[in-house]
Design a protein that fits this description.
The protein is about 35% helix and about 15% strand. The chain has about 400 residues and is α/β, with parallel strands linked by helices.
């Protein structure tokens, strides 16, 4: 008889969640293998909906394949890092050189590297709620405590600097800013960002700024790079090719350390050590960076009236407005809508609804609780499908909500 026991997994995973690719996504795959056509709105993956990266980026990789077969510098190839520096300088960020730039296998890897370089056991990081769940998970995995600061619907999901300040303790090492925001689409005003920059300087924490959607804004919303406002503290700006340039599979992201570089010296050295341990990031994809940042910015056509992303967003706004049970703060940026359901739908639970929508209507969405919120009234969808597909989606959502309303309430 075998004495073998099931393999025990790490206790560090006890509080780790990533439902965007979790149980619902696995069930969607099972249904698709049975022949059902699933409309998957759970992930912001442009290629899934017919978007292509600019051809010039592909050509840049092809032309440089002969120089891509060996390891590169742990921080990334110099042409890519220098192009990132130039972009930062054009935006008004001062004092940055290629030495403060790290290229990684997507922003996801750099989030892990930055937090691992920063945190000790029990250190606290303030993370938005709702958040992109990788941030909460990465804090926990790197021995820290994620403390969630609310971004309230009644304030268009924009954070309140005073509320953030009230959560700061002696253990606070960093505050995470996701702008433009995933999942809400909020674009933070200048005055809010300025207040957070000043707060970082007076309280001595690092600003970790996820700006992967930096050029995806609508209807004149203005994106303000946080690094332009930070002078006497440390700012880490993270962005990449995946969203603006529709190149998720290239796995190319970057982190730029700016502000008071003298204060950041040990932190930069620690990030470089961790970057060295993984040798380097994907080399072929890095050759696309210089072409992407220095070339024609086709994202502007997609987000302008008549553009694919703009019109899909318009379809979402129209559909929500026509259904009295739905609520939405119009997303000013990014690729998502964080849609709420009103009190007229009895006993609504976002996880139950998402499962029913998948099983009965073959539409996959992400329940709001996936984004670390204390309520269960929202779902997140992406606006990457075309407008016609989104009209079909909201028709099916409306049908399911009608079924819910016809059931007697279970409330006592």
């Amino acid at each position: 008889m075998s004495a073998a026991n099931p393999i025990r997994t790490s206790d560090s995973l006890a509080n780790i969640r990533y439902e965007i690719r979790g149980r619902l996504a696995r069930r969607a795959l099972e249904l698709s293998r049975k022949g059902y056509e699933i409309i998957s709105l759970n992930i912001g993956n442009p290629a899934l909906f017919g978007f292509r990266a600019p051809e010039t980026m592909r050509l840049a990789m092809i032309e440089n394949f002969p120089d891509s077969e060996g390891y590169c510098h742990q921080k990334g190839i110099f042409p890519a890092r220098e192009a990132i520096v130039m972009q930062q300088q054009e935006r008004g960020v001062q004092g940055v050189t290629a030495e403060e730039v790290f290229v990684g296998n997507g922003v996801s890897e750099l989030i892990d590297i930055a937090l691992r370089a920063l945190l000790n056991e029990g250190d606290e990081v303030l993370v938005p709620s709702p958040d992109y769940p990788l941030w909460t998970a990465a804090v926990n995995l790197n021995r820290g405590r994620a403390i969630h600061y609310p971004c309230r619907s009644e304030n268009s999901f924009v954070p309140d600097p005073e509320e953030i300040e009230s959560l700061i303790t002696t253990r606070t090492r960093a505050v995470v800013i996701v702008n433009p925001n995933n999942p809400t689409g909020a674009v933070y005003p200048y005055e809010v960002l300025k207040a957070l920059a000043r707060l970082s300087e007076t309280r001595g924490f690092v600003l970790l700024c996820d700006e992967i959607y930096d050029q995806i804004t609508y209807d004149g919303a203005e994106f303000v790079p946080m690094a332009t406002l930070v002078k006497d503290s440390v700012c880490v700006t993270m962005s990449g090719l995946s969203k603006v340039y529709r190149a998720c599979g290239y796995r190319v992201g970057w982190a730029v350390v700016s502000g008071n570089i003298h204060l950041a010296k040990n932190f930069i050295d620690a990030m470089e050590l961790l970057a060295s341990l993984r040798l380097c990031s994907n080399v072929p994809g890095q050759w696309a960076v210089q072409t992407a940042l220095g070339g024609y910015q086709s994202i502007r056509e997609l987000t302008a009236p008549g553009g694919r992303l703009y019109e899909s967003r318009r379809a979402i706004l129209t559909a929500v407005a026509s259904n009295p049970s739905l609520r939405l703060k119009a997303p000013a940026g990014a690729l998502y809508a964080f849609v709420g359901v009103g009190d007229d739908v009895p006993d609504f639970d976002d996880q139950t609804f998402a499962l029913d929508l998948l099983e009965k209507k073959h539409v996959l969405v992400a329940p709001g609780v996936s984004f670390n919120v204390p309520y269960n009234t929202h779902v997140r969808i992406t606006n990457l499908p075309d407008a016609t597909t989104l009209q079909i989606v909201f028709s099916r959502i409306g049908e399911l909500l009608d079924e819910y309303r016809s059931k007697p309430s279970q409330r006592v």
